[in-house]
Amino acid sequence: MRKIQKILVHELVSQEIQSYIQEKELKEGHKLPSVEEMTSMFGVGRSSLREALRYLEAIDIVRVENGKGIFVRDVDTFRFSGKVKIERERTFLLNTLDVRRALEGKAVALASKRITESQIKELELCLEEYRILKEGDKDTSQIDLTFHRYVIKAARNPVLETVMDAIAGLYEKFFNEPLGNKQLFDETYPFHRTMFDAIAAHDTGRALEEFNKMMDCIEDKIKSY
Q1: Residue 72: φ, ψ to 5°
Q2: Could you give the C-alpha distances from 95 to 82, 98, 138, 161, 172, in angstroms and in order?
Q3: Residues 37 and 103 grouped into a single domain
Q4: Is residue 3 domain-resident?
Q5: 24: domain CATH number?
Q6: pTM score above 0.85
Q7: To 5 degrees, how large is the angle CA 113–CA 115–CA 121?
Q8: Gap between the Cα atoms of 5 and 18, Å rounded
Q9: How many Cα neighbours within 13 Å face the side chain of 202?
Q10: Which of 60, 6, 58, 64 is nearest to 31 (CA)?
Q11: What value does the mean pLDDT take over residues 127-145?
């Protein structure tokens, strides 16, 4: 089982710097506070701040001129806002994915042991509808979400189901135009099928293996967007 990843300090710092630029309505060429000032402002070390600045340079949001200072690079406010929005969405989805791996992974393991024949049939029908929509190039986001809800239900653990319901708003972000593309996760369809086959066969190890392949595929898609 994969460990839940920690949020790195420099990722948080880069978000704070981007927020600062927006809040202060800085434009291209405007100078940011010095490294010393920002370490004090954000309460972080110089190494974390410099790593955050290197990242922001890489995505063309700031430029660092030795001996002169740190300057805003992107003149197009709309385009800059879009970059910030996409980056925040990506970070949010990756953090939520860590939680999905832990909670839904447990649901998959339990479902493989407790699923009933009627629930197996329910999942089969769901996958058939998924296949038809996918082959018809239709939106598969809601049927994908329904599949995962059925798996959680098949775990037959009311506490786990309640916890998942409590974070439904976060969870459903994956199925509500993630990064502006409703079919971003269509490539995971084969893993839905193989995971279902393992659950139906009560093969816990294989079910978790296919589940983690699905999560890895989603993670790679989010990171590459």
Answers
A1: -70, 135
A2: 20, 5, 28, 20, 14
A3: no
A4: no
A5: 1.10.10.10
A6: no
A7: 145
A8: 23
A9: 5
A10: 64
A11: 91
Amino acid identity, residue 102?
A
Strand partners, 70: 64
Range of the domain at 108: 85-224
CATH number of the domain encompassing residue 124: 1.20.120.530
Instruction: Note whether residue 60 is domain-resident.
Output: yes
H or E element in which residue 223 lies: helix 204-224
Q: What is the mean pLDDT of residues 49-65?
A: 87
Does residue 1 carry a pLDDT above 70? Answer: no
119, two tokens: 């629930």
Same domain (yes/no): 164, 186: yes
Tokens linked to 196: 């279902």
Tell me which H or E stretch contains 67.
none
User: Considering 75, 98, 127, which residue would you say is the last residue of a domain?
Assistant: 75
Would you place residue 141 in the very low, low, confident or very high pLDDT band (cuts 50, 70, 90)?
confident
